[in-house]
Here is the input.
Amino acid sequence: MPRIPLLRRAPWLLLLASCGGENLVLPDDGAPQRLLIESGNDQQAPAGATLPDSIVLRVTDGTGRPVQDAPVGVTLQDGGSVAPVALRSGADGRVTFAWTLGRASGPQQLEVGIGDSTGITRTVTIDAMAAAGGVDSLDVVRGNQQVGQVNTALAESLVVRALDRFGNPVGGAQVRWVPSAGGIAPITATTDAAGRAAGAWTLGRTPGTQTAVARVQLSGSRIEASFSANALASTPPALSIATQPSGSATADVPFAQQPVIQLRGADGQPVSTSGVAVTASVSGGTATLAGTATVSTNSQGRATFTDLALNGPSGSHTLTFTAPGYLAATSAAISLTAASPDLGRSTLSASPTSLAVGATSTITVTVRSASGAPVPGATVTLAASGTGNTLTQPSSPTNSAGVATGTLSSTTAGARTVTAKINNSDLGKSVTVTFQASSATILGIVSGDDQTAQAGRRSPTPSWCACSIPSATRSTTSPSTGRPRAAP
Here is the structure.
């Protein structure tokens, strides 16, 4: 039968060899060209701990053959360490190392590439999630050293924050409140994602100093934070709001009308005492307070705030004002409108940006206002170029950190340009995610197929085969035998 022309179509590279098992030698054999992730990506462990599984990579040449003794360098994006420090590929092209995460909880990455301390190329990104460790300490956030009347609830809730040994907030911890007098509701609270738990304290009936403890019970030990309050039998001095803050406001924009707080005595009359520190805070909820939160009273006993602002989702919020030795005051409700996104300050990123066909990249959009503050509640829509894509849109609007995430995977190789819209406005930024197909080697029959000869005798025509590295994997077969032929 006729020979099949081998060099008829680029970019095929064909080298003839005996089909008797001799090695084929390719022009770039042995030169490290690619770094592939085999296992260990997308693991989770406590911050500062070593991932349970080792990271395994493979160095290959341009044909997909393993390359031995290639140097591999690592860039730690979020702290931590790898072991061993000096990495080289083995006889099978594999590089194996352990990754100890950095101390901060949340997503962490390291960049691995072919090279050493002088520089790396052909990089890939390894992702991991660092979870907070166990509770190591309880911090008092607010609510300490208040003044109130006996048998009444304090104006501000007691708030603690649970932290691990690296200072990361610990969510899901059970905090039990233990007051020396009165009661705290709920008696047991669960810390939120920010590590915070709160309780409302109703003082006991005895005047004087009363105490309360926030407690996390561990195996064989316990972590505590202490509070105190001064319970007064008669009407104590108090704060009053001479000027209320604006009834409506835009997030991250100072109130058009700033609050003014007046000191008052037990008789309800203004007290002209200067130098008393009055502190403003948000009364619960997810909003945060910006600006100068503590202001001292002037000679008239007034504390005038000048630049307070709220940042957070749309909704109703109130402010609490406190001062040592005075009953607290709570503002009227403030209707907050979320800040408008600033497209120039908002960002779009992908991780990883280079990955194998079928793998998944996480697309992250962070929406910020003109001042750089996060904008929660924004709707994010993603788009990607190319074919064979599976693009998962964010499941909800941006969270309190202004972040929304989606995912992208593809069944075909090539670069994908990812773009985003925020509240139907083009972000005007893009990120490129490249999907790489694994290299494939095809062995095809050139001549000598479908011959007839006597048993034990040489066939009349020598058998030859061809090794080819195609730009895309494909193959053909002999119609009579089903064995591979070289593709044209």
Remarks:
- The chain has a mean pLDDT of 86.
